[in-house]
Structures are given as C-alpha cells and as structure tokens.
Design a protein that fits this description.
2 copies of one chain form a homodimer. The first copy, chain A, is α/β, with parallel strands linked by helices. In chain A, 56% of the residues lie in helices and 13% in strands. The interface between A and B is large, with 72 and 72 residues.
C-alpha cells in the first residue's frame, strides 16, 4: 500500500525513474499498478495526446523524433510511447526504428518507452493507455503514441489520442488500400512522408479523393501534409496542424467529448475485466472442463454449458452479498 | 419458437435457401439465430474447416476457387465463407475477388457467402464462426473460410479452422514482414502463390528461414507449396497437404484438442456476452452517465465509478435470484 503511494508521489513529482518503474508494473500486469493508476488519476488531463500511426516503413519514428525535438525546443516536456503490437516472433522492425531515435533520446527531457506485445494484443492497447496516463500525471505536456497501423488494437491505441495523425508514403498503393481502410476513418489528418519520391502528388490526390467520401458531419476536415521527415521538411506544418486541430477541439467542445468517450470505454473495460475475474473462480473453471467433455461427446451443447455456468454465478453472487 | 425449429430442420436437411436465411439472421444479430444454432449444434462436427488467409492481392479467392472445384470433383459438398473485416468505407477489394469466383458459383453444390464487417470487427469473427456451424450442420464436408490477414480478428477466424493455410506472394517483402508476424504463427502450411514471378525462390527460402525459428514442440512442421493458382498449378499439392495435415491431426489427437479449444473459447464468449447483457441495464447505463460527469469534473476516478457499478450489480443479482 505504502509502496504504491510512494510510487504515485514519485510520478506526480515527475521523477523519471519512478515513471519508468510504474510503466514496467503496468506492462507486467502487476496488481500494484492498478492502485498507482487510481492514485494518480486526479493529476491527469494536462497532457495532450497525439497518436501517430501508419504502415510499417512509413517513417513514424522519424516523424515522432522530429516532432519531439520541435516541442522540446518550445520548452514542453515530451513523452513518447512506441507501441509494437506485432508478435515478438519475427519482430525487430521496431528495434531498428528505435536506434534511429537516439538523438532525441539523448535529451533527458524526452521520455521514450517502447512497449511490445507479449501475446495478447488487447492487453497491449490497455497498457499503452495506462502508460499514457502515467506520462500525463508526471507532467508531460505532449504525449505521442506511435503504433504500426495494421489491426484493431492499433486503431484502439490511436483512438486514445486527442489528435490522430496517419502517416503514409507514396508507395502505399492500391494493394494495401484495404488494409488502411480503418486508418482512413480515425485520421484527424494525414502526413504523406517521403514525399520527395515519385508518385507523391498522385498519392496526395488519391488520399484527398478517398477523404471526399467521408461524411462531413462535424466541421473539421482532415487534410494532407507532405513531409520528408528525415530532412525535417514539413515538420512545422505538422505541428501547426496539430495545433489547429487542438484549437478546434477545445473551441467546439470536441476535446471534452472525446475524453468523456475515452473514460466511458475505460470504465466499461474495468467492469468487463472485473466481471471476468469474479466469474472464473477455480470451481467454475473446473465445471467448464467437465462441461467441455460432455460437449465433445455431443451430450450437451456449448449453449447449455454457458447457461449452467451463468446460473451458477448468479447463485454464488447471491451467497456472497 | 416454431420458426426457429423449422429453420433448424431446413438447415439439417441441407436446404440451400434455409442455410442462406439462417446466415442472414446470424449476420443481423437476430435473437432467433441463437436458438437455431442451439438446435443444430448436435449436427455439427462433420465438416472439415480450412482457413485461408493472407495479405490483400495474394490470390486467396483464386486459390479457394480452385480448391472448391477440386473438392467438388471428388464429390464433396463445399461451403465457402469469404470474410472481409476491412471497413465498408473504402471496401471494394472483396467485390472484385468475388467476381472472379463466378465459375465456382455456377455450381449449385458449392455454397458461397460473403460476410463483411459493419463496424464491429469482433462481432464479425463470431458471426463467421456461427455461419461455419450452419454450413457444417447442413452437410458441407469442406468449409473454407477466407479472410484478409491483417489483424487480430482475421487471426481469430483463421484460428477457427482445422487447417490454416497462409498464402503469400513473392512481392510480400521485408517491409510488410512485421504485418505478417501473426500469420507466421497460425499457419499449418504456406502457399507461395504467383510463384512464376521473380523472387519466388527467394521468398520460399525466407519463409523457410523464419519457420526455422519456430519451436517444433509438436511433430507437424509447416512447409511451403508454390502455386500459380490462376493456372491451376500446385493445387493438387495444396489438397494433398491439407489431407496429410488432417491425417496428422486425426491420428495425433490434435483435431480433438483443437475442437475442444474452440468450444472452450465459444463458451467463454457466450458467457462474456451474457454478463454484459445482464450488467448493462438501463439503470446502470444511466448511473454510468452520472458517474462520467463526476469523473470529467475530477470529483471521482473511473476506478471509483467502475467499483460502484460492480457493487450495484452484485446487489441486483442478489435481488433477482
């Protein structure tokens, strides 16, 4: 108990080591992390969260690197979470990315943390959001969450940002269009990186065309910025677009709505998790195993087994309250 | 009630229209679909499920098409589920795929159904598995589930198969390696399609190299088959590999284990769903809204709100039992 309070205090004081340790606890799914997160919650809400996502090789890390430097020069404290939901099996892409980030890493005022999946993708998305809360409570005014955009869990992480930037390259052609479909919907704006390569103007046009199909229910219209992140070209424009999107959100009440939506999802997730813990006692896990044998032998259906376990749960909850 | 029984009977009789209607009910999340699935459950278990997945443009539909024709010629009843989890926003890739499948579609003995995401990806994966149960109960001896392999939900669908085939092309280079990481782990074997293109042998070698890193805990080792599906080259080999994997599973007890694992997950999903329904009564949804306002104003934490709702649930369950 005291340890959690101590760590929460360290975080709120902005202690780097405390922040790093707390994120490790979150990553390892330690019980203490929950208590720490509860304790720091009231200190969150000041960090502005920027999600950066896009296909492998689009230059996410380079862009994030340059943005971090820009914000640092403006005197802001910057935190970076590089989240890699691809399996540890072939991994390595991210390692390469991180090596390229060393010039920012040398700056002690930028906190960088890589988080990789260890099997469970859903879990990673939750942990990344909790790590962002820790960075937020510890005084990071800009929090960037970088993910490879290839699946639902990455969309979840990007969806946890105030402003979501989707980065593409001229080579992202028709073939992987489908793959990016989800990205199209979450982007607050697009960055076409490596725009000194052939096909850049065409790519910008095709993104704009696809954006044209989007309903314009609210008054923010996502645009496209061309960058060559490795040379710093276009970074200023990206910073400006983030700023105008932020202003738009703040003035339209959209920021409040977005954050409320995030809290809504968070509460639902906490409840879902707790219900699972409550439900899957050892005794019901054993009952499931017995039920499975009956189902395999076609003496019961999975629906029967589920119904029986549910009714058993209702009785047990009854006994304990 | 009677209507569900009637439809279940139609399915078990192998009535095409009944099957199509039942899958529509599943797709629309109709209440009746649950009862139908319960009624037909005892008739499932005879269809062999083949998952075919891979990146967009790899030629999944063409391969599935040729395999279907092969199995048909062997006198087997074939069902195909083409599942497209990409958003309906940019969609269209799948439509093109389906158009190429017309020669199989003309054969009345092959049942083909496209299922597309309508927002909820998790939901689609569940519905695809339920549709496979319907095809199974209606006497389809071979059930192929085709998905674009780019995310968790596709892996789920592929994981619902007895044999999972991952299809790649020579062009699937390093850049999208990370994206395919998940695929590497679920493949029972690989098909390198369009293997008449440059780089085919290199691609086969690099797949084999990656496979080399896989632990060989069980005695099945995934191989790689080269195909040019559009010309029918290599189809016989694919069929043979499916057959030897099936034989391996049957003899090693792996098929039983796989199916038991699927049932285990199914029961857990049914329970999770029911717990959510039980939990989110109108009264607790309203309490959540009130709680959210307190959290937004920093008078409570999301953890407080979740804990209160959980304790409220326990009391209510208490009252009702």
């Amino acid at each position: 108990m005291n340890r959690a309070k101590e760590m929460a205090d360290q975080i709120v004081r902005g202690d780097r080591l405390g922040v790093a340790r707390a994120i490790s606890l979150v990553e390892n799914g330690s019980d203490m992390s929950q208590e720490i997160l509860e304790r720091i919650y009231s200190k969150t809400g000041n960090g502005y969260r920027i999600g950066v996502t896009g296909p492998p090789g689009a230059g996410k890390s380079t862009l994030v690197n340059k943005l971090a430097r820009f914000y640092r020069n403006a005197g802001l404290r910057v935190g970076i979470l590089a989240v890699d939901p691809t399996s540890p099996f072939t991994g390595g892409a991210l390692l390469g990315d991180r090596i390229r980030m060393t010039d920012v890493e040398l700056d002690r005022e930028v906190f960088i943390r890589s988080m990789a999946s260890r099997g469970s993708m859903g879990g990673l998305s939750k942990k990344a959001k909790e790590a962002a809360d820790i960075l937020d409570a510890s005084g990071h005014e800009i929090i960037m969450m970088e993910t490879v955009g290839v699946g639902q869990s990455e969309l979840d992480i990007a969806g946890a940002a105030d402003t979501t930037v989707v980065i593409l390259v001229p080579e992202s052609g028709d073939g992987i269009q489908a793959m990016k479909a989800g990205l199209m919907e979450i982007a607050d704006f697009f960055v076409l990186n490596k725009s000194d390569r052939p096909g850049a103007d065409q790519a910008v046009m095709s993104i704009k065309m696809i954006l044209g199909f989007r309903s314009t229910g609210n008054s923010w219209t996502p645009g496209v910025v061309k960058t060559v992140a490795s040379e710093g070209t276009g970074i200023q424009e990206v910073v400006e677009l983030v700023a105008s999107h932020r202003q738009f959100l703040e003035q339209s009440g959209g920021l409040q709505r977005k954050r409320k939506g995030r809290l809504d999802r968070k509460i639902r997730e906490l409840i879902e998790e707790q219900l699972q813990v409550d439900f899957w006692t050892r005794h019901r896990q054993e009952a499931l195993q017995r039920g499975l044998d009956l189902v395999v032998n076609r003496n019961q259906t999975p629906y029967d087994v589920a119904a029986k376990l549910i009714s058993d749960f209702r009785k047990e909850v009854d006994l304990h309250t």
